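Practice problem. Given the sequence and the SMILES for LGMQ2O6W, write out the predicted structure.
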Amino acid sequence: MALKSFIEVGPDSHFPIQNLPFGIFKPEPTSPPRPGVAIGDYVLDLSTISVSGLFDGPFLSGSDCFLQPNLNKFLALGRPAWKEARATLQNLLSADEAKLRDNPSLREKSLVPMSKVEMLLPIAIGDYTDFFSSMHHARNCGIMFRGPENAINPNWFQLPIAYHGRSSSIVVSGTDIIRPRGQGHPSGNSPPYFGPSRKLDFELEMAAVVGPGNELGKPVDVNEAGDHIFGLVLMNDWSARDIQAWEYVPLGPFLGKSFGTTLSPWIVTLDALEPFACDAPKQDPQPLPYLAEKISKNYDISLEVQIKPAGQEDSCVVTRSNFNHLYWTVTQQLAHHTINGCNLRPGDLLGSGTISGPEPESYGCLLELTWNGQKSLSLNGTTRKFLEDGDEVVFSGCSKGDGYKVGFGTCSGKILPSP
Ligand SMILES: O=C(O)/C=C/C(=O)CC(=O)CC(=O)O
Ligand SMILES: [Ca+2]
Ligand SMILES: [Mg+2]
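Answer key:
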């Protein structure tokens, strides 16, 4: 018999009892932020469950990790504590368990309708790194920025390329994004362009949330890297292509990226995603031994991007992709990140890179979908080359099980004009 909750959850919900993603929410605008898990159309308040003494396993009883305004303390406890929390919550929410089901006052205190809550960033993010792990994206960007002869540099096949991103401008889904101003390529002998970006884009990504982390000077073995990843979120790495193309030589992305990055509020755990694990693509050439994994895993997560122009009722799907298109795995990314001794800390974020598939309908950003503005995309009667003011970009993602889904909800943001 499939696991079932006493809370009614429809087959299309992203949040059945098989998922139980973690987030941070406020039940009322004035209440302090606290951890919760999503179950159907409700959020279960973990601070209430914790105060009621229901986390009674060896790792969590007596811990104040669910009385915090972010999940960092819980993340630092590591996989045994994460598994214990998941088992405790799956039991508490299951149809056969009376403790919460038959306690109306505890239910009233701990289950809040999702429509009423405000979601916040689930973690305090110390450091954020963005990888470049889709071969299709790397090739397409290479052709556009550097020409077809050297589309993908030989180093790309030997190591997961990345740059250090900016954590201060990471925001939760629903936060507006202000169109950045900056410099673009000069035309002819004139000075560089300066003004609002004319090539504002989204990048369809997911990001891994780091758990315990490692001590400075002590790299994480690639075969143990899975124990350092709590879960995944959806991520939009908003990108100003004109600023990026002019500034990135020779040090890489800077102001074309650092004006905003949006995360979905719910962290779906690797434990919930385990049924959707699949083989990662075969890597050729073979990676060096420190990147060679005994088991090389991806996850089958369908991803979709919609754009809703200002004043329109309906949004329009602009691309469909899948997390399983990535060439480098999250565990290889984490092992590579630490191989020089660099320490990762609880709540650090590792962006996957833009998740483009092989087909043009699966490209993960407008740069690729419109081939740097050479083509237009049609959206219910209007067209786009890059994003316009008022456009709302909505990502969604989920894995499909037998009669249920394990999903991420949405990750959205609306473009406001430059001041
Ligand atoms: O090819 C380039 O020069 C850069 C492409 C990117 O936009 C970098 C990036 O953010 C990584 C990614 O999303 O895959
Ligand atoms: Ca990116
Ligand atoms: Mg960004």
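Check your answer against the key. The chain has a mean pLDDT of 97.
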